[in-house]
Amino acid sequence: MLPSFLSSPDDLNSLVDDIKSWAIDLGFADARVVEPDLAQYKDEFNQWLNNQYHAGMDYLANHGDMRFYPEQLHPGTRRVISLRMHYLPQSVATVERLQTKHKAYIARYALGRDYHKLIRKRLTQLAKKIEEKVGDHGYRAFVDSAPILERQIAEQAGMGWIGKNTLLLTPKAGSWFLLGEIFTNLPLPVDKPTESRHCGSCTACLTQCPTDAFVEPWVLDAGKCISYLTIEHKGPIPEELRSKMGNRIFGCDDCQLVCPWTKFAKYTEEDDFQPRHNLDSANLIELFEWDEATFLKNTEGSPIRRTGFENWRRNIAVALGNAPTNQATIQTLQSALPHSSELVKEHILWALKQHDR
């Protein structure tokens, strides 16, 4: 039962206005309300799985139809509050760093504190503020932490549109933001959905992907995506893709960097998204020389911890193979051979061959 003071449409509209205001105060850039209709994406998603475009991410095939029916994730769900938060620090170089081949490129969302922790805390604070206003409203907060079609939810909420690069785009901020959701049992008034996608005839993200990971507009083959290869993938990186990875050692931003909408990007004001341990400008050799204890210490509370130490070294070995040839690079690779795992050795030997041409 709703509190008596929420019995009219005006009361509910006023509550939504409060929610959006509180969200801004908590550091979110936008908040929208939607009653999502997600079953329409079921066939398309299952076809994507059948084509094995999810590569080794078997968890994407789990949980049955839960991602298409929000009430299965949170019983009683009537609405979803979709929110976004900017993460790109103004001081951080992007294209320039990709072009500096002896330095590491790390996806810009991963330079600071793990966004899961930051955004989940803010979502919970927002949900508690709603609770203070209306009492127990039945909610559950998510940050990339459950089988949720978050971009489709955001698009239906009018947050923006899904671009050909499969990311959510908005004319107000491009795509340099992260999404979060609050599933709620409140019958809140909903926002108007995005009526059309505004990519037009642009194909920059498709044609300039370093590894040609896009099968067609809106369809990504994760097995070729540098973000997947450097973060989720276990085992050797396919040899035919290594030279295309450049100096990207954790994630990839290329399909954002070439998107015309990113010129409208807004910068973050969150201290937690500022770079840690010089990761926005660190030399590849410096990072390759980290031992496991240093890796664990310097990635504490960071999304980079997800890839693990062995894959971290694997990724950097590939990047060193793509770096300019000089004695320091060759000596670093050779010195690492005796005490590296078989997986890392394979990539070191490949890297050394690149400098012996």
Automatic annotation (TrEMBL):
Binds 2 [4Fe-4S] clusters per monomer. Its EC number is 1.17.99.6. GO terms for biological process: tRNA queuosine(34) biosynthetic process. Cob(II)alamin binds at residues 67, 144, 165, 168, 179, 227, 252-253. It catalyses: epoxyqueuosine(34) in tRNA + AH2 = queuosine(34) in tRNA + A + H2O. It is found in: Cytoplasm. Residues 186-219 form the 4Fe-4S ferredoxin-type domain. The keyword Metal-binding applies. [4Fe-4S] cluster 2 binds at residues 209, 225, 252, 255. GO terms for cellular component: cytoplasm. The active site is at 144 (proton donor). [4Fe-4S] cluster 1 binds at residues 199, 202, 205, 259. Its cofactor is [4Fe-4S] cluster; cob(II)alamin. Keywords: 4Fe-4S, Cobalamin, Cobalt, Cytoplasm, Iron, Iron-sulfur, Metal-binding, Oxidoreductase, Queuosine biosynthesis, tRNA processing. TRNA binds at residue 234. One of its GO terms (molecular function) is 4 iron, 4 sulfur cluster binding. Pathway: tRNA modification; tRNA-queuosine biosynthesis. Gene3D superfamilies: 3.30.70.20. Transmembrane segments: none annotated. It holds the Pfam family QueG_DUF1730. HAMAP family: QueG. Belongs to the QueG family. Catalyzes the conversion of epoxyqueuosine (oQ) to queuosine (Q), which is a hypermodified base found in the wobble positions of tRNA(Asp), tRNA(Asn), tRNA(His) and tRNA(Tyr). PANTHER family: EPOXYQUEUOSINE REDUCTASE. Monomer. This is Epoxyqueuosine reductase.
